[in-house]
């Protein structure tokens, strides 16, 4: 019998972590990590087949942990065989053919704030400036990647992230987070203009692109909001073991599967009882503040 596939679950919330382990452990070997830094170490040491990564975590968030795992040199070696021979071998010894396949890699290499803010001496028009900056990016790429890898790439330079684009990304990502708190906890999270402006200031970066903005939002509007709601939770003790037993019976076929009932039970276990209907996020000289708004 072949060894079971291994899945690394990276999640700092105990309930979420327990639910995932209970669902997966019968079919997979499950590894567990509670923060991004440990996840990076385990990913390198254990080489799991799949990683389920939470984004908002202490020590190191999921965005940075994912970036570090993807930057591991072994990943480039894996793709080199595809770019060179057009084939690779999976964990069962089968040859995978990538003929007539386009492989895309995205990177922010070379797009530092200093590079984008500086105008090369002697260059005045935008077209010439962009050409010089693109040349800087190509040089940085070749300094970072091995020649055998870089020589197999065709470079496409995308337009740099503008502040207007960052504002639109901010609204989209923010709505995704606010919708989750609305559905799970029945709480409206409202940001003041000062809070939104500070989020944009912290998150907008031509070097790091949209991922950095999303990471800032996760920290300020997801992790910190979750901590405040958890601190204010005055509900009765949860029957976590009862929910886990119910899930085990469901998986074993002892109960009929009803998606609506499953969602209702999990939400009931997760929903906080805070006594307020909204949470206002503001920013002042002291930093971000989180103030409950009661009816």
Explain this structure.
- The relative contact order is 0.10.
- Among the domains are: 1-71, Response regulator (Rossmann fold), CATH 3.40.50.2300; 163-235 and 272-293, Helicase, Ruva Protein, domain 3.
- The strands form three sheets. Strands 2-1-3 form a three-stranded parallel β-sheet, with helices on both faces. A three-stranded mixed β-sheet has the order 6-7-8. A two-stranded antiparallel ribbon has the order 4-5.
- The chain is of the alpha/beta class.
- The chain has helices at 14-24, 36-46, 62-70, 73-85, 113-117, 126-144, 147-150, 163-185, 193-203, 209-232, 240-251, 259-270, and strands at 6-10, 29-33, 50-53, 87-89, 95-97, 188-191, 278-284, 287-293.
- 52% of the residues lie in helices and 13% in strands.
- α1 (14-24) runs parallel beside α11, α8 (163-185) packs across α9 (193-203) and α8 packs parallel to α10.
- β1, α1 and β2 form a beta-alpha-beta unit.
**How far apart are the termini?**
60 Å
Radius of gyration over all CA atoms, rounded: 23 Å
Q: What is the average per-residue confidence, as pLDDT, rounded to a whole number? A: 82
CATH architecture of the domain at 163-235 and 272-293: Orthogonal Bundle
At CATH level 3, the topology of the domain at 163-235 and 272-293 is Helicase, Ruva Protein, domain 3
Q: Total number of β-strand segments?
A: 8
């Amino acid at each position: 019998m072949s060894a079971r596939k291994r899945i690394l679950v990276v999640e700092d919330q105990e309930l979420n972590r327990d639910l995932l382990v209970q669902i997966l452990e019968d079919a997979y070997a499950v590894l567990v990590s509670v923060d991004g830094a440990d996840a990076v170490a385990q990913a390198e040491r254990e080489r799991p087949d799949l990683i389920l990564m939470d984004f908002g975590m202490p020590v190191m968030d999921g965005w940075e942990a994912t970036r570090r795992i993807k930057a591991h040199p072994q990943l480039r070696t894996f793709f080199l065989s595809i770019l060179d021979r057009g084939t690779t071998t999976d964990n069962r010894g089968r040859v995978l053919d990538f003929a007539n396949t386009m492989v895309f890699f995205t990177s922010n290499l070379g797009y530092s704030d200093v590079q984008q803010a500086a105008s090369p001496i002697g260059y005045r028009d935008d077209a010439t400036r962009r050409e010089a900056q693109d040349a800087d990016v190509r040089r940085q790429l070749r300094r970072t990647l091995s020649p055998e890898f870089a020589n197999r790439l065709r470079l496409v330079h995308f337009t740099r992230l503008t502040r207007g684009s960052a504002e639109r990304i901010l609204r989209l990502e923010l709505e995704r987070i606010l919708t989750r708190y609305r559905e799970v906890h029945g709480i409206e999270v409202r940001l003041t203009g000062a809070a939104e402006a500070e989020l944009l200031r912290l998150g907008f970066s031509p070097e790091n692109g949209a991922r950095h903005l999303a990471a800032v939002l996760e920290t300020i509007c997801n992790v910190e909001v979750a901590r405040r709601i958890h601190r204010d939770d005055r509900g009765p003790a949860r029957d976590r073991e009862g929910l886990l037993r119910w899930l085990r019976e469901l998986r074993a076929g002892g109960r009929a599967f009803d998606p609506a009932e499953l969602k209702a039970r999990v939400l009931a276990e997760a929903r906080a009882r805070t006594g307020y209907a909204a949470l206002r996020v503001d920013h002042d000289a002291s930093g971000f503040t989180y103030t409950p708004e009661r009816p």
